[in-house]
Amino acid sequence: RPEIAQSNTMLDVGNRKIFSEEHDMFRESVRRFFAEEIAPHHSEWEKAGQISREAWEKAGENGLLGVNTAEKFGGIGGDFLSTMIVIEEQMYSNCSGPGFALHSDIVMPYLAHYGTPEQIEKFIPAMVSGKCITAIAMTEPGAGSDLQGVRTNAKKDGDDWILNGSK
After folding, report:
1. Mind listing the pLDDT tens digit for each residue in 76-91?
2. What is the C-alpha to C-alpha distance for residues 85 and 101, in angstroms, rounded to an integer?
3. Which residues lie closer than 8 Å to 22 by C-beta, 6 or more apart?
4. Residue 116: is it exposed, middle or buried by C-beta count within 10 angstroms (0-12/13-18/19+)?
5. Which position among 36, 39, 95, 134 has the lowest Cβ density within 10 Å, counted as fewest Cβ atoms?
6. How far apart are CA 72 and CA 146, in angstroms?
7. What's the number of CA atoms in the CB half-sphere (13 Å) around residue 101?
8. Is the model's pLDDT at 35 over the cut of 60?
9. pLDDT digit string (tens) for 40-87?
10. Domain residue ranges of the chain, discontinuous segments joined by +
11. SS3 letters for the chain?
């Protein structure tokens, strides 16, 4: 493989030594998916304010959701670089609307690491398939997406919890 400095652009598949031939083949399939399934509909989804459920399910069928999720949960068992390929190709397609990375690389790990075995068994396969679409809803007035700025808190009071905050 040529050194990265020999690459004309980042779009030159296979020119970065960190990627294997398997990664290159995966990249081609991901690029084709975004070109054929996402880009033609992106402006329509932007106007509607959401992408279609069908697009999520197609992404799941193509192994693009929860890329590093174990096969026993429906994932392809990909590595970190495979996950980065999906993110790179989505950005190269200029179709930022689908929140695949948020769903796969932020929400899914929360559940995988902190969920109960029952929650993991129920939700991870559905998330990998695109049948369950997730988001982060941790915000409040004045904090925006700065989770360190969120002031809402919960305190144990006997057998109850007292929740203080606003949404």
Report:
1. 999 999 999 999 999 9
2. 11
3. none
4. exposed
5. 36
6. 35
7. 14
8. yes
9. 999 999 999 999 999 999 999 999 999 999 999 999 999 999 999 999
10. 4-136
11. CCCHHHCCCCCCCCCCCCCCHHHHHHHHHHHHHHHHHHHHHHHHHHHHCCCCHHHHHHHHHCCCCCCCCCHHHCCCCCCHHHHHHHHHHHHHCCCCCCCHHHHHHHHHHHHHHHCCHHHHHHHHHHHHHCCCCCCCCCCCCCCCCCHHHCCCEEEEECCEEEEECCC
The string of pLDDT tens digits covering residues 9-30 is: 655 654 667 888 899 999 999 9
pTM: 0.78
Residue among 23, 38, 12 nearest 100 (CA): 38
Distance from C-alpha of 147 to C-alpha of 125, rounded to nearest angstrom: 28
